[in-house]
């Protein structure tokens, strides 16, 4: 009885499957198990929009895989094709109309777990670069898509690291490092202490270092602003450098001649050193006598250079006839005109005439004129 019931159930299931397959073929042609409706999946609503993403490698992604935004299912993959022109796989997706994404969104192939299913993760671009809105029929280019590494790739990289990489040499490196540090603990400790002091000093002078860098920045900005003048100076310097290059032989000859001249001067100084020292020693007594002369020497030079009548001579011949003024008045006689006082100031020519007017003096009985000396004043320097 049980066997009959099981046979009936299996026959019914096969018939239902055949009817389903025939219904699919009668519509648009059956394309495989991917065309069968599957339970679950994201609800994309009655009016989803379609987006196509280009991938260099879709790995084991299959149709009906979920499309997620922030790990929330918002759509599903409808088809994966390879166009005739190009090598990028075209992944067609349908997304719920309520999901808004920027026009420059990015797509990544991710995996739910180590052995889980693969899905397409949609995300906005880096912050501050989003623009537009992703709409129906949009295409995400290949430079906005990528994928996570596969488990096989991770295991292969670990195998290379463990077998053919440098991990096998870690023991040798550790042994050699211990051998280098063994017995040098004080030196290593001193080096670490000095390194600590060095970093502390750098930290204390961080403001100065920042100021120096700012100064260098300002200098570079100034040089950049004056780049035209610097280029002109360099262009004008080129002819001078060319002249120097043309006259290099003459310059080398001049430098060699200067070197020979220095050798000759050194020989002359070496040969005449004793004579020069003797001359200086002989000159020392003369300089000593001049120093002993002191102030007497310049005073004697004053008398010598202004001979015969100088201010110093007046102090020697005080009381003589140097201050006598003589005026001959004709037949009436001879008068003596007194000299001016040096402190008196004549304000007008009349004062001169009054001062120079002669005073009559009695003449002697003899008719010959004569001069009468004036009694010298005590301050005979006038």
Describe this structure in words.
There is one protein chain. By secondary structure, the protein is of the alpha/beta class. Among the domains are: 1-37; 42-148; 294-382, no CATH class. It is built from ten helices and ten strands. It has helices at residues 2-27, 151-164, 170-181, 185-204, 206-225, 227-246, 248-293, 296-305, 311-316, 349-356, and strands at residues 49-55, 66-69, 72-81, 89-95, 106-111, 118-123, 138-140, 145-147, 325-328, 334-337. It has an eight-stranded mixed sheet with strand order 7-1-4-3-2-6-5-8, with no helix packed on it. A two-stranded antiparallel ribbon has the order 9-10. Strand 5 (106-111) and strand 6 (118-123) form a beta hairpin. The longest helix has 46 residues, at 248-293. It is elongated. The relative contact order is 0.05. The model is unreliable at 24-28, 339-353 and 361-382 (pLDDT under 50).
Chart the SSEs and their pairings.
Layout: H1 2-27, E1 49-55, E2 66-69, E3 72-81, E4 89-95, E5 106-111, E6 118-123, E7 138-140, E8 145-147, H2 151-164, H3 170-181, H4 185-204, H5 206-225, H6 227-246, H7 248-293, H8 296-305, H9 311-316, E9 325-328, E10 334-337, H10 349-356
Parallel strand pairs: 1-7, 2-6, 5-8
Antiparallel strand pairs: 1-4, 2-3, 3-4, 5-6, 9-10
